[in-house]
Amino acid sequence: MHNLYRLLLLTIIITAGTGVTCFCRASDTTHRAVSYRISNSDTSLNADTTKPTVVIGNVNISGFKKTKPYIIIREIPFKEGDNILRSDLQSKLTLCRQQLMNTTLFVDVIVSIEREESNLVFINVQIKERWYLFPLPYFKVVDRNFNEWLVQNKGSLQRINYGLKFIQNNVSGRNDKLNIWLISGYTRQATIRYENPFIDKHLKHGINIGFSYSRTHEINFATEFNKQKFLKVPDEFLVKNLSIDLGYSYRPAIKTRHHFRLYYSDVSVKDTVLLSNPNFFPGGLKRVRLPGIGYSIEHFNVDYIPYPLKGVYVDARIYKRFGKHTNVWEFGGKGRYNFKMFHKTYMEFQAAGVLRFPFRQPYFSSRLFGTSDLYMRGLEYYVIDGVAGGMARATAKREVLSFNLKTPIKSRSHDKIPFRIFLKGFGDIGYAYSKEQGNNFLNNRLLRTGGIGVDILTFYDVVLKLEYSFNQFGEKGLFVHSRSDF
Hints:
The structure is a single chain. By secondary structure, the chain is mostly beta strands. It folds into 2 domains: 32-129, Roll (Ubiquitin-like (UB roll)), CATH 3.10.20.310; 183-481, membrane protein fhac: a member of the omp85/tpsb transporter family (Porin), CATH 2.40.160. Helix content is 10%, strand content 51%. The strands form 3 sheets. A 16-stranded antiparallel β-sheet has the order 6-7-8-9-10-13-14-15-16-17-18-19-20-21-22-23. Strands 1, 2, 3, 4 and 5 form a 5-stranded mixed β-sheet that branches. Strands 11-12 form a two-stranded antiparallel ribbon. β7 (160-169) and β8 form a beta hairpin.
């Protein structure tokens, strides 16, 4: 019980500490607005609700300071002069808010009808921008989840990364992002990344580029009984990794995105790693160069990307890594379907799968479940390596509480902190295939887990998940997660 209290307290502190610590923001005293109008000289007409269609007469957008107007307009599903069925008008307004919120540029969007004149409808879009500049102190455990760090590794401070994380979102007002990370502690890491989703006047093409260099004294060199085994040499860096990637994105419409990416990594390990696991790299190599190319397609049709309650999301990808000793094809996909069952009660189905060729892979390219966002609830203390696998989840959730807390900040956009709390019940199934199973008992068998939990959704897309889970082996416990589901 003592560990449970420590776990809950520490999770809240870390989530808050890595979420919003220091802000640099523009003044809220000035606001710009953009409007596009149709000509209508007769302003004395009254609304005629007997007509089956309405015409969009004007859309007035207010409250933005940083974001370019055309970035906002692109997400609005109607324009001046559009004819819309009166019965569809409310759904169009809802869709407008959803698409603007899904840009992650705004803390809130209010879309409303300002007035009606005959069959003309005048729309108001009121926006509250986020703070975009975050110089944040960085503090994060390196273990796969809080439970593993707190319970199995007894909250060791030697398994902490700390440093500075500089995040500038919406750099030029086009929803572009600049990230600079300077990390020390368990991992010595320097990272810089820039993403610009709109580099052309038609707002369909984007680019991104990233560079990262890291080195660590400790490495996960093998898996036994589905637990990670580590090797550590305090006065020597066991692994060094230099990575560069260049990407291109294409967004022909609002809900579909294509991504193409070129990768290059240069990874080296010390002799002591290969003495512990000769199959860590292919052919007993100490250094591998990993060029690769990838393509993925995403389709979003959900009400709110960080925590969807209604809609469909699908992601499919293919990745090819080249090299005489590092050849691999990887195919993967994931999807989710959310729908409302009845008042404040929702159902969610998720599925994901991975397939790699050839089936015989070195250890460093055989990780599957538990080391990323692909994990089964109730098996957080385990990892499951493999070359092929899939899992499915079913979750029923009900919103039980929704409220706002006032803040002392004098700001039109950040005067309150919203909270939404959901109770949920869930069940997972999964399967991971490994050609060389060894002593790992979770591979090559159907796995089942289940449980109940609480999700807390708050400011800046922070989601805190408290889950009491169990598995088919009779193990159970309370687990805490602060990252999004796959």
